[in-house]
Amino acid sequence: MYFLTDEERKQLLKSYLPKSRQMDIADELRGWNWNQPPLEPVYDIKLALYEIANSYCPTNRDLFLRRIDGVKARPNAAMLRGKLLHQVLVDVLVRAKKLIYLHGVGNYQEFLQEHKIPFKTNFERYRSQLSEEEFSSLARDAEILANFETSRIVARIQEILIKQPYIAEDSLVSLAIPVVVEQKLDGSFLGLSQNLSADAFTFSEPMIIDLKFGEPKKFHRLTTTGYALVMEAIHEFPVNLGCLVYAEFKNGRLSVKKDIHIIDDELRQWFIEERDEKMRMIYEEIDPGIAQNCYDTCPYYRNCLG
Known about the structure:
It comes from Thermanaerosceptrum fracticalcis. It holds the Pfam family Csa1. The chain has helices at residues 6-22, 49-53, 61-67, 77-103, 108-115, 132-163, 169-176, 221-235, 265-283, 301-305, and strands at 180-185, 196-202, 207-212, 241-250, 253-262. With 306 residues, it is an alpha+beta fold. A 5-stranded mixed beta sheet has the order 1-2-3-4-5, sandwiched between helices. Strand 4 and strand 5 (253-262) form a beta hairpin. Helix 4 (77-103) packs antiparallel against helix 5 (108-115) and helix 8 crosses helix 9 (265-283). The chain starts with 5 loop residues before the first helix and ends with a helix.
């Protein structure tokens, strides 16, 4: 899911990467300038990154209800499904890394045997939160996802081993699975939670990757932008690229589309404005009102419309 195809990699190297290096990002919008305006937080409030980046509720009243009224809503089926499929992907990637270190390059066949064992995730404790149809669909799609990723990892390892006969375990892991999953980040400098978790990050060319299982939304790019600012604030190196990975299951098949984008001044400014506006709403306890076009699966639907 996080690995680029040959076409995507060529597009990255020949288009996005040169453009991002030539583009002048305003220094005041780089994360390492978190201690001065406009990045310096105005309010002494810590928000989760998703609270800033998400705009599924047109008026953001979901944030008001959660932070001011203390409403704890249960995640809807789509949110729960996304969370569990995320975990499946993490488990497959981490298992592959562990097996490479465990067996070593010299025992590749043993790695292959264990890695090909079907990956089973126990979703039983979530069964009561889903309908029988939703649960069956989740289990089927999780299996498709795990099989797909397992096959890709094997193919990548075999390709590397053919080219590099003297490679050792650590190098093999970095070449075959060049992503850090669930990268933990402290967003305190920017007024964010100190326990952030980016879906994936590649170090070869600093790029934030975020996985989505729903329909593309314009505001999804705020997620990659927020993590890029946090990375810059912590490590003080530029992070200019983001990639949204959209996965869809249809007729028993997995479809993946990627939105690679440059994290430019416009996105950075947008993220900061969202942060400041939502912080102000919470600090001053401003009820933004009920939206005109609520969606009926919103976890806060009953709180707003009864």
